[in-house]
Design brief:
Length: 505
Amino acid sequence: MVDDEEDEMQSEQLPDKVKEMIARSGKNPITLFSELFTKVYKSVPDFAFRKVAGRRKDKPIQLYSCTIEMGEKTIEGKKRSTKKGAKTSCALFGLPVLCDAYGDEALSKSTAIEEPKNFQERLKKETYNLFLKLGTTNPLIYATENVISAFFLEDKSTGNVKLLSLATGTKAINGESLSLTGEAVTDCHAEILARRGLIRVFYNEIQKLSEGEESIFFMTKSGKLALKPDLSVHLFISSPPCGSARISFKPPKQPANGDAKKNEDAEMTEVRTEISAAGNDEKKAASLPENPTDMKLRYKTFDGIMGGERLLTMSCSDKLTKWNLLGLQGALLSHLIEPVYMSSLVIGSRANTDHIRKVLFDRIAGFQATVPFSLHLVPIHFIEHTQDVSKANKYSAISMNWNATDDTVELIKTSSGTLPMEAGQSDISEVVPRLAKVKFVQLFKEAATKLKRPCDVTSGSEYTAFKNLAKDYCANRDEFKKWVFKNKLGIWHQKPEDSKRFLVR
Ligand SMILES: [Zn+2]
């Protein structure tokens, strides 16, 4: 064990009936516990916290303990490094006590989830059902719930909907953890990890096709693969993406007109960087403090970042905008497949539709992409969502991702962008996440070979050389970033070039 996050990876022993109840309810353990507690004791639960000193690896650390009075009993959860973690653990220990006090049958009736009314609710339900089911095998997963995101595949010919990739997370790595070897995941926000998971599914589907199995892709005349016409991809996010889409300005007392209105619009739609540090100010959490007039300033160097300059990662609002323009498949895969766009976006909270539409499409409507790329104006749906999201846990130190390829979960430490080190491990190569660049470029090489798709780069080349194979994609991407700057939407910051120049074996 290296630090407190990793100690949390141990799971509580939950009785099967509690696991089932959580999965069936469609609620996280804290919400479920609180609702049932109120039914049984006719009062809201009063969780008590205390700080306790812990030791790990001979170093003192601070942990939280959470207790709840239940009749004659005091229930205490496991000690955890965050309040939400401690509260979740306490709720999990309290649930069997509630079952005994109230009777299993009555409880199971009261936790039955409503049937979804429409397609969008179905996506939300399936997202949470899977998330809650995964949490029963490792309750730490519940503590990563702050933003949840999932990609779905819909088959219009059969009406089937399949979850492909699911992730949670709200953090990007620290500058000093930036990898020069492509072995760390830089951005661990839920939508970003969910998309990387989707790409992993795409590689698996390419492999299936190349082996003559049923696949979501078919071979086109151009020699690239494309998504079958009956299939479409949908994205669910529990809250609006960070960045400009999440900014809500109070309406001015006097309606703004002329220049004032123009400035306000510009501020609300400019591209922004994520902040990884804790802080709950929504506007600050999406802000872009630098405003250099020279676009070259966006090229930070690895040495600069190591010397303490801030590592800038574009916000999810900006990345979603880019996906609507260039597709979800990214540069590498563009060499093998036609662009794949999302067909709808479902946001699990109330938000200003017009504003989000402006951010995701309207602000870049003036950019002319070249074939096969074009701006896709997809429907955005908002649905009410009642999950318990603790403000105190807004920045979870762990992101989780689940992938349909092998039906497994991976937990990523957001401070390092790697998997947690287990006892006996000392080398970064042992903790490379499956969603890291270095893993993807290997999948790309295998896929290109299987499809007999010519690549004029060989092993031993730099990672960027593989990305640059997709000439159309790279040309459109570069033009787009220049266009953003020219049209006063701000600066599209890039990761230091040296972080993309590792040699591919
Ligand atoms: Zn984000």
